[in-house]
Amino acid sequence: MTAARDLHTVLGAGPAGTALAAELIRRGHQVRLVDRSGDGDTPAGVQRFAADVSTTEGARAALDGAAVAYHCVNVGYHLQVEVMPRIQRAVLTAAEAAGARLVVLDTLYPYGETHGAVMTEDTPWNATSRKGRMRAELDAGYLAAHEEGRLRVVLGRSADFVGPGVLNSTLGGAVFPAALTGGEVPALGDIDLPHSYTYIGDVAAGLATLGENPDGDGRVWHLPTAPALTTRRILDLVAERVGRPLDLTVVAEPRPFGPFDEVFMAEYAEMFYQHTEAQIVDSSAIEKAYGLVPNPMPATIDATLAWYGELLAAR
């Protein structure tokens, strides 16, 4: 990749896309960050761009001149099955036209229920949920496009996000503000099971590393993820840092509670198995291949509490 062709374009300005854009700037790349609005908080040095990448025209405009494209776009739970395939078609077409490599941020959904088995990149794709089957079909399409020689593609799978800027996660905006203010903290499912969470900074570092290393193309990688702890242990770490026990409410089955409203929980019900069986991600492959080390969970909790504390103070 030459300096004249070093535009890294990040599609999606949510927590992952924004963290990735900042990481790419730190690594010395020219970075364009794309979403529908083209405004909002932007890391220093990043160019903002407005485009609807669910359309071929919007995706082509967004990826014009890009050497590497990062697909970090997500949509509301109730829209995913309908909209995500449309985004895939547009992004594949646009990346191919631009001659860009494509790095896709992915989820664990294609694996489906694993009955607590450790998830590696060799775990079978046995999804039975609508959203899991949809994600598996998309991933098969991405890998097929690579195999067919249309363009170079690589997928980076993450567990549930946690960290600064992460609001819409089971370890996000429902947990940390309540922990800091003494409010009611919801915890989903069996909190005594191990559950992997991926630090948003490790999502960014993993995707950026895949973007810089074409030798990893044509396959799925697990993004760097700290060793799984039980959700109860993670919440204990939070309690230790805020200096008081949490007012914990265990949501043992999919029902509306607090920020998890009826619309969200109705769509999330089919994925609730993630909280009733252990979710353990092994990311040793990417760690060994590229020398990445995931952020330890205690440090992740420290950074997340600090960010939420600043957010609450600003309000």
Automatic annotation (TrEMBL):
Domain NAD-dependent epimerase/dehydratase, first and last residues per copy: 11-217
Protein name: NAD-dependent epimerase/dehydratase family protein
InterPro entries to which the protein is assigned, alphabetical: Epimerase_deHydtase, NAD(P)-bd_dom_sf, NAD(P)-dependent_oxidoreduct
